[in-house]
Design goal:
The longest helix is centred in the middle third of the chain and has 20 residues, at about 155-175. By secondary structure, the protein is α/β, with parallel strands linked by helices. The two termini are about 20 Å apart. The protein has an eight-stranded mixed beta sheet with strand order 1-2-4-3-5-6-9-10, sandwiched between helices. The chain has a single domain (about 10-150, about 215-295), classed as Rossmann fold (3-Layer(aba) Sandwich). The protein has eight helices and ten strands.
Length: about 300
C-alpha cells in the first residue's frame, strides 16, 4: 500500500444540521487546509456518538479528505428533549438524518466527490436515503443484518436477552432503552430500540419492514461501488450476517473483505475496534485500506 503524507493542517469545527423533521443534529467538520477533492460523511453505528470516530476522521483529514461526523437524533448532543419523549427511529435516521448530513457535506465541500463511510447501522440505512445518488462510493465496516439466528453461542444467548427482554422491558418501564448500562453505546430512543429488535430477529434486517413500516426505499436501486470490511471475531457482523445484509442491496456491486485479527498481528478487532487509534498504531494497513479505496473512487 502507498504511504500518504500527513503534513496537512486541518481545521476542526462544530456544525448544526437541521433535518426536515425540524431536528438539529450536532456535527463536526474536519477541513484540510488544501482544496478538498473527496469529502466523506461517517455514518455511525447504533447509539454511538461522533466523538468515537474522532481519531479516524482526523487521520483521513490529515490525508486531504474533507470529513463530517454527526450524532443521530436522540444520541449525544443531538438529544434535544427528554429521551422518553424522543420519537426518533432507525427509519428516521436513514430517511431524515443521513440525507440532511449528506446535503451539509455538499454545502461544506462544494467542489468534491461525496462518499459514505458506514459503521454497522450507518451502512445498513443507506437504502432509505432519497439523495443517495450524490454518493460516489461506500466503505462499510462491520455492516451486516445482525440477525440473531446466525450468531454463535454463547453470544447468541446474550443478544436474545438484550433484544427480547432488556429492550421491551426497559422501553415499557422507562420509555427508552438504557443500553449504556450494559456497554451498548448511548441510551436509545424507544423507537430505535424497538426497530433494532424487530429487524435483528428477521432475515435481511430492514427487509423485514418492507411493505409494513417501509413502503418507499432504494435498496433495489442503489448501484454504488462499495467495499464491505468484516472481521472473524465480530460476533454481530459475522460473515453470514454480512452476506444477509449485502443481499438486500440487490444492485450494489460489493467487494467483501473478511479478515481475522491475526492477519494483522492483532488479538481482536470485533465490532468496534477498527476505529480505535490503538488498532491503527499496531496495524496501520487497516486505516490505509480506506484511504486506498477512496482514492480509487474519484
Amino acid at each position: 500500500m502507498e504511504s500518504t503524507s500527513t503534513n496537512t493542517q486541518i481545521d476542526i469545527y462544530s456544525l448544526s444540521i437541521m433535518t426536515d423533521r425540524n431536528q438539529a443534529l450536532a456535527a463536526t467538520v474536519y477541513r484540510p487546509e488544501n482544496e478538498v477533492k473527496i469529502a466523506l460523511m461517517i455514518a455511525p453505528a447504533t447509539g454511538i456518538k461522533r466523538q468515537f470516530y474522532h481519531n479516524f476522521a482526523t487521520y483521513l483529514a490529515e490525508r486531504g479528505f474533507g470529513v463530517l461526523t454527526f450524532d443521530n437524533e436522540g444520541i449525544g448532543e443531538s438529544l434535544s428533549c427528554d429521551l422518553a419523549k424522543c420519537d426518533a427511529s432507525l427509519i428516521s435516521w436513514g430517511r431524515h438524518d443521513m440525507p440532511a448530513v449528506l446535503d451539509a457535506l455538499q454545502d461544506e465541500f462544494t467542489n468534491a466527490t461525496y462518499h459514505l463511510i458506514g459503521h454497522s447501522a450507518g451502512g445498513q440505512l443507506i437504502g432509505l436515503m432519497p439523495n443517495y445518488k450524490a454518493i460516489a462510493s461506500v466503505f462499510n465496516v462491520a455492516c451486516s443484518s445482525g440477525r440473531i439466528k446466525n450468531m454463535d453461542m454463547p453470544y447468541k444467548l446474550k443478544a436474545m436477552g438484550f433484544m427480547d427482554a432488556f429492550i421491551p422491558l426497559t422501553n415499557l418501564a422507562l420509555g427508552y432503552t438504557p443500553s449504556d448500562k450494559i456497554g451498548m453505546g448511548e441510551p436509545l430512543p424507544r423507537g430505535v430500540a424497538r426497530q433494532w429488535r424487530e429487524w435483528c430477529n428477521g432475515a435481511g434486517y430492514i427487509k423485514t419492514a418492507f411493505g409494513k413500516s417501509i413502503h418507499r426505499h432504494f435498496y433495489d436501486e442503489i448501484d454504488i461501488q462499495a467495499l464491505w470490511l468484516g472481521f472473524s471475531d465480530d460476533e454481530i457482523a459475522n460473515s453470514k450476517n454480512m452476506d444477509d445484509m449485502i443481499r438486500v442491496f440487490t444492485q450494489m456491486p460489493v467487494e467483501k473483505r473478511f479478515f481475522a485479527p491475526t492477519d494483522f498481528g492483532l488479538k481482536s478487532i470485533g465490532h468496534m475496534r477498527y476505529f480505535s487509534r490503538r488498532t491503527n498504531v499496531k496495524a496501520p494497513e487497516l486505516w490505509q485500506m480506506a484511504v486506498d479505496w477512496l482514492n480509487k473512487q474519484q
